[in-house]
Structure prediction request, 57 residues.
Amino acid sequence: MIPPSWTGLVRLWCDDVGATAIEYALIALGIAMAVIGSVRLLGTALLDGISELPGYL
Prediction:
């Protein structure tokens, strides 16, 4: 038997209402991190290529 003072905590622990929103937020965070990482890598490579361009002209 759960003590009456713990009933609210148990109900909150078993509640799944916000679980889907949190899962979607974590997926969006992972995608954003991948996009930011790839843009930073491509940006650095592009900047290196542009800085070497005057040597070829």
Q: What stands out?
A: Residues 21 and 27 are 10 Å apart (CA to CA). The mean pLDDT is 85. The longest helix spans residues 19-56.
